[in-house]
Amino acid sequence: QVQLVESGGGLVKPGGSLRLSCAASGFAFSNSYMAWLRQAPVKGLELLAYINDNSRYTNYADSVRGRFTISRDNAKNSLFLEMNSLTAEDSAVYFCATLAFSGSFYDHWGQGTLVTVSS
Amino acid sequence: EIGLTQSPATLSASPGERATLSCRASQSLRSNLAWYQQKPGQAPRLLIYGTSTRATGVPARFSGSGSETEFTLTISSLQSEDFAVYYCQQYNHWPPGSFGQGTKVEI
Fold it and tell me: What is the Cα–Cα distance from A57 to A48, expressed in whole angstroms?
């Protein structure tokens, strides 16, 4: 059974940093492309970043490029999102998800972790 | 970026009724469209991909159709557990592979 469990969210001040983690189990993590998405009340669902199976390739949304970094540790079945220079617009629920092999949609999601950026 | 417009924003229906949800794209997507279901406090769940292929474990009452710019998700007979928000996502132009704003199916 595929399981993705995010952690690391919380309340952070504007300009601050957070590191999100996603623990994966129940599937071949080291063979899977992974993504971070977020969901904010007004902006809806948004892809933030994705990473290929061996970490050689990453890609970011314009809204987070240069501030967020996606990484993974295949030995520990873990995905990470380092977030810097946070603003109120980054407040959202953050999800990790697997990218399907048969297309660029998301076949498994974690339950999400809430990030609130506020002074 | 490709825009996806979902309609209606809210659909009020009763258990046993048929529900038809629409997703319209600003450009052709061929068949590269997925549908997700999201219940309060939960993650989205993949229902349909490739316009009409049900994901593993999805009941047969869910079906998808359409092509190019017009797509439909149909729930043939609403069950109590189907009351949720439904999102379409295009992946013909990915990344970013935009999402619609959602249709809430309520009693």
Answer: 14
